[in-house]
Amino acid sequence: MKAVIHPTFKNIAVSPLKDASAKESEAAGIIVPGSDGNGPSRKGTIIAVGPSVDRELLNTGDVVVYKNYGYESIKVGEDTILVMADENVVAKFTEEAA
Length: 98
Prior knowledge:
The chain is mainly beta.
């Protein structure tokens, strides 16, 4: 059986991006502190949102930058999932038409 995570209240579950993904962001001109390969990236993809999260601001699939502290790290199989309050997200990446 596959484990599914359901954050409560105003919490979100984030799958951290690997450092290689962070380096790709740097090549695109966006520099995320902590993504220099010397430490963990603070960038990840939202995989689940709690029922009280404002879905116009944050939703499943959004790529976000989050604070260094203020999250719970949960090991699910070989994956690490971070659960945090939605207020710990400091930025969201979006694509704009050229």
